[in-house]
TrEMBL record:
The lineage of its organism: Bacteria, Pseudomonadati, Pseudomonadota, Betaproteobacteria, Neisseriales. Its EC number is 2.7.1.11. This is ATP-dependent 6-phosphofructokinase. It is found in: Cytoplasm. One of its GO terms (molecular function) is fructose-6-phosphate binding. Catalyzes the phosphorylation of D-fructose 6-phosphate to fructose 1,6-bisphosphate by ATP, the first committing step of glycolysis. The active site is at 145 (proton acceptor). Substrate binds at residues 143-145, 180, 187-189, 240, 284, 290-293.
Length: 373
């Protein structure tokens, strides 16, 4: 429970940036200040700022006008794991140290009654460990990938889907003009929500997901069938985590500087190369990359982020901790923070949108896909 009538709370944003983060910061700040008379401390660059003591008070003036802004005014970082924190020694070499003690000392120094932690699965793992150390924590789920358990949807996903849909619209016009196969590679890690929703919204002819193993011949047959019917172009939307037919591996590279060293990406170029070799048709690839994470959030994401942020402020100021504020059945609720740690939320192979897309002729690259004929 808060140690005094007017609580002191912190808020940090961890992991990758995401449209809607500023809306959460604004909602937490305004609700906590206006409803509870709280002091709100904005912690810079995620857990890095909490360890290093970088933060400043958030006032109504500071959060004015940020609702529509992308990114986060607090900054973020993927390198701030307090239990494996990079410390550069005098010899210039990086040593990975447990700095959780510094983290606790800073919480006490700032006299915080609790911390609102906004982030994805990696950030929530750290938030759960922080809670177990005795710090009151409320989590707010964030990821464009929409792959967090315990919540029906995460803010940022709707914006990313809209970006993919618009990109496919634009690629369709140039594909039809030049009679090409256009391949669009999108984010999502090992979950295909962005590729599925964005691909269907953008009218993709082929959608390749991590959850549905695909075969090259099925993709070739779809593209050639369209050409035979006089449709001299095809649009393919592929998730970065889709598995290659040979061995089921994903295209990735390693970056040991990151908390998660695996960096997915590059499958779009592989798909384009195989299509040219397997069909004789000209293919081009576009990788949207961080365009999906940037820019102004959609109205849906602004509203969802506002609802979750306000609910989080209520929880932390009332002394409710160890919970995640979630979006469930079109309302907000709380679930145990540990509920996010059991795995990732993937696209079910029998999802109704997949079934609808198949009925319309969309190919998912699997042998059972009726849309690939």
């Amino acid at each position: 429970m808060p140690s005094h009538m007017h609580p002191r709370i912190g808020i940090l944003t961890g992991g990758g940036d995401c449209p809607g983060l500023n809306a959460v910061i604004r909602a937490v700040t305004l609700t906590a200040r206006r409803q509870y008379g709280a002091t709100v401390l904005g912690i810079e660059d995620g857990f890095e700022g909490l360890i290093e003591g970088r933060g400043s008070e958030l006032t109504e003036e500071r959060v004015a006008g940020i609702l529509q802004d992308g990114g986060t005014i607090l900054g973020s970082s993927n390198k701030g794991d307090p239990w494996r924190y990079p410390v550069v020694g005098q010899d210039g070499k990086t040593d990975w140290q447990d700095c959780s003690g510094r983290l606790l000392a800073q919480v006490q120094h700032w006299q915080l009654d609790g911390v609102v932690v906004v982030g994805g699965d990696g950030t929530m793992q750290m938030a759960d460990r922080l809670q177990r150390l005795g710090v009151e924590v409320v989590g707010v789920p964030k990821t464009i990938d929409n792959d967090l358990l315990a919540t029906d949807q995460t803010f940022g996903f709707d914006t990313a889907t809209a970006v993919v849909s618009e990109a496919l619209d634009r690629l369709t016009t140039t594909a039809s003009s030049h009679h090409r196969v256009m391949v669009l590679e999108v984010m999502g890690r090992t979950a295909g929500w962005i590729a599925l929703m964005g691909g269907v919204a953008g009218g993709a002819d082929v959608i390749l997901l991590p959850e549905i193993p695909f075969q090259w011949q099925a993709v070739f047959d779809k593209v050639k069938a369209r050409a035979a019917m006089g449709m001299r172009y095809s649009i393919i939307c592929v998730a970065e985590g889709a598995q290659l037919p040979t061995g089921g591996e994903v295209v990735q590279r390693m970056d040991r500087r990151r908390t998660d060293p695996k960096r997915l990406g590059g499958i779009g170029a592989v798909v384009a190369e195989h299509i040219e070799a397997g069909t004789g048709l000209e293919a081009r690839v576009t990788v949207l990359g961080h365009l999906q994470r940037g820019g102004s959030p959609t109205a849906f994401d602004r509203i969802l982020a506002t609802r979750l942020g306000s609910h989080a402020a209520d929880c932390i100021c009332r002394g409710e901790s160890g919970v995640l504020v979630a979006y469930h059945q079109m309302g907000t609720c709380t679930v145990p923070l540990s509920a996010t740690l059991a795995g990732r939320r993937n696209v079910p192979a029998d999802h109704d949108l997949i079934q609808a897309a198949r009925a319309l002729g969309t190919c998912f690259g699997d042998e059972a896909g009726s849309g690939c004929a």
